[in-house]
Amino acid sequence: MIKIALLGCGRIAKRHSDLLGGGHIKGAKLVGVCDVIRERADAIGSQYHVPTYYDLEQLLERRDVDVVSVLTPSGLHPIHAIAVAKAGKHVVVEKPMALRLEDADAMIEACDAAGVKLFVVKQNRFNVPVVKAREALDAGRFGRLVLGTVRVRWCRDQSYYDQDAWRGTWAYDGGVLANQASHHIDMLEWFFGDVVSVHARATTALVKIEAEDTAIATLRFRNGALGIIEATTAVRPKDLEGSLSILGENGAVEIAGFAVNQIRHWRFVGELESDKEIVENYSVNPPNVYGFGHQAYYEHVVDCLQNQSPALVDGFQGRKSLELISALYESIETGREVALRFSPQLCRLGAVP
After folding, report:
1. 296 touches 24 (CB < 8 A)
2. What secondary structure letter does DSSP report for 182?
3. Distance in angstroms (rounded) separating the CA atoms of residues 166 and 174
4. What is the pTM of this model?
5. How do residues 293-339 score in pLDDT, each as one tens digit?
């Protein structure tokens, strides 16, 4: 049995605690929660009858904790993940793994030095429609890739950002690109491969925060394909979609819904008998803004730890996604196309005032 504790009991912690505390992850269980805000820790701890902690050091003193899921503000991920690794415990960290590339490198180094695994949460990769699209890609059904698009059209009003002082800040969060759209950006890169360059624009349209609530970008991939990112939390009055489109010479797939959870289009040159089954049986997951892969993700973590198998999204994969996001912010600041690989100069993500 893999024993997991949660560090951070904010908004996203409900999804993690429901699965682990509710006994939905075979081979894993929730054994503790920690948050500096006592009320938040107490609420989850009492709900699932597990010990609560208000100080990370106290939690890390427990020898029976195998994994700590780091669910704190993004800007605090590095210091917390490194502390967990040094205590000899495996690390699960929510997206993005860090806000600065040097912090991501430090996290990878700390986990390697301690001999523990680093898992970066990218749960939408486990959504059933996404899994089926990836299987089609691996089978070569798209042929030469032409164009990839992600759209994040969500609603986050001022009350959302006012829940916590860190939301929307450069030091601890970033804007829609670093937070809400990071899963979708990761999937675009996962399907289309290495990015050569990006050109992005952004604005803060409807809320009072430091970072952006609306952004667009174009991408050039190494394989010759182009990409488009459209991301906003300025949709009113409620969420519209979170989608991924994959267009190739031999097929086109669009996965939409609120969180990349519904096959909208599934068309290939030379249809297979299995295509009808995919559309009928695997086209929709139930609606949830966080996606539907957290359960499959934790099952994957358990499998990796029990069988010593490689993680689908390890520290290096998480860093790759962060580098792309950093390049987008660099382009926003400079107004120019930014080539990958690069060292951020004007990117404000992770900057402490």
Report:
1. no
2. H
3. 9
4. 0.94
5. 899 999 999 999 999 999 999 999 999 999 999 999 999 999 999 99
